[in-house]
Predict the 3D structure of the following.
Amino acid sequence: MSNSTPTTDNEKKKIKGGKSQCLPSRVLHIRQIPSDVTGAEVIALGLPFGKVTNFLMLKGKGQAFLEMASTEAAVSMVNYYTPATPHLHNRPVYIQYSNYKELKTENLHNQAIFSKFGYVLKIVMFHKNNQFQALLQYADAMNAYCAKMSLDGHSIYPGCCTLRIDFSKLTTLKVKYNNDKSRDFTRVDLPFGDGQRTLDASLAATFATPNTIFPSYPGAAGFAQPLGFPQGAGISVPAAPGALGSLTITPSTVSGQIPGVTGIPGNSVLLVSNLNPEAITPYGLFILFGVYGNVHRVKIMFKKRGIALVQMADATQAQLAINHLNGQRLYGRVMHTTLSKYQTIQLPREGQEDKGLTKDYSNSPLHRFKNPGSKNCQNIFPPSATLHLSNIPPSVTVDDLKNLFASKGSTVKAFKFFQKDCKMGLIQLGSVEEAVHALIELHNHDFGENQHLRVSFSKSTI
């Protein structure tokens, strides 16, 4: 973390009567934070609205800067919290746009290995059993999940220093010093210390032996409770496992295979309501929710076709789908997505009338995250009007693609092939809703000769 932090002088000039005069920005300024509130608790305010890409806490001033992945996510957050002031530790905090367009902070080299998967909150490094190990805490559990999938079993150097990554039993890291042994990237005010601090006995007792796969994935269960969302405010942050993600990293000198991905326990069934009964299908929900995890089963209610259940592979993927799809327009209606009271979707019994409304996709070849180390984990973005297309055959032209999307009712605003790879391109449609419909219709579109189009949401614009 850079020692030079954004000053708040400009912020103060923008504040008059407690209201910000700043234009919308993806960087938010949060004020009057109680002194005992952690950076993770502040970051949790932003997670229901999308990915948090950077964070800076000015502990002594009771202030913080929160950078969201998009201006749209920041606008949604401000619009929600302006009439419904959030509370941390039973005290109100105030959120406004910052005059910073982005947070520029420097990462330690050790963090850089992992930061491409999401914002790293804290790192603690230590020696145990004659091995160098580290604990690393992400702001978002899905980031930790993707980092484990992508990096576990990979070598830092050819043939040696193979990473062994497991989910930690700790829910949060306590960092006292910012030095070469430990770092809290949310705190710029921590002392350097003597650099020779030994690990707290309470922490050491919780570490498993190297290469042990933990049977559970505890995030911050019950973490949402102190956030103080007003009753009936229209949004909830379920106290589900996976609000935060902690990893134990052990570099080993022995190369090994990447282990299979195991599910994260917790409620993975989503309740999706206010659907358009005339247009929705199990396959459509499978494709859309499949952008944010592996969908195992989908059930549209037989007597209430506007309501459906979607079962994800695990609780973290379910929470990710809520973060990105709750409030999204689909076939002319604003979709509501939350956790269901059910733990699994039951398949219809033999002879039971269902009319094809319940589908099992657990073995589908279209799962985006079935392979450990999948690049899809690094490219999870909220719905956007610009789609990323890949696996485009050489014979397919720009006009072919424009006509294909137009045939599905899309308004094509722009298209471009990637300069270095003509198998990929970006297509910009008339609205986010159009892009959602096009993704459902055209992901896995068959061009012939076993060439299938891959469609995902893009963070870029043309």
Summary: The first strand starts at residue 15 and ends at 16. The longest helix spans residues 71-81.
